[in-house]
Input
Amino acid sequence: MVLIHYVVIRIVRRQTTNDTVHYKWRKNLAYILGFVGFLLVGRVWFQGMGSLATFLGLLSAGLAIALRDPVSDMAGWLFIIWRKPFGVGDRIEIGKHKGDVIDVRFFKFTILEIGNWVQADQSTGQVIHIPNHEVFQGR
Output
């Protein structure tokens, strides 16, 4: 591009001695060559962007699969905090576990198990940590 610019300006200088014409040729030639250069380089960039978009799509899909449980745990925590299906001190049964809620955290809640091998609804003394996303499954 620089070589083309140099050759054209040299031809213009030989054809005329008017400084205004020289200036206009230099400016317009710089704009035109800059645009053509951008098109040439941009074509390469946009081809690279296609593979970059593919990479980012695959990366985001992989992260969505890998982080499914932590993200659903956070959503479960928000559900527990806002909708308040239970709170600390409540007796709940979720899945195969029954117990008294003793703690609610960002990724899990904790219950003190009741029943199971102990007859009646007395505490077994076993502390069970249940992921927050279990509130959505409701089994």
